[in-house]
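Bit of a strange request maybe. I'm writing a small parser for structure token strings and I need a real example to test against, not something I typed by hand. Could someone generate the tokens for this chain?
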Amino acid sequence: MLAAAQHAAHAGARIAAAPELAAITASEVYPGVGAATREQFADYARRAGTTGHHPVGTCRMSDDDAAVVDAQLAVRGVAGLRVADASVMTRLISGNTNAAAIMIGERAAEFIRASSR
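Reply from user aminoacidic:
Good idea to test on real output. This should exercise your parser:
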């Protein structure tokens, strides 16, 4: 992962330094014009890298005993607590997680309404 980020930072710097872009930019801001070595690009990647993904799966939903959440989105062993977000998804979907998270929340609302009747 670090090697890919390092490569991307280095490639971005090379592209930005191309004469066609250099003519329309004031100066390189990140990682900085002084960054030239693999280690400097790796250091920049370590300091500035963040995820662009929407993390999922921290409260896995399943019917097995190792799952945190059951099929009704209830937390195992904790009465009255449900998880209603993308953390119950077992894998990251290929698209944005927003619609799936909304659906999970809507489903949780249905479960809560049904259990209060």
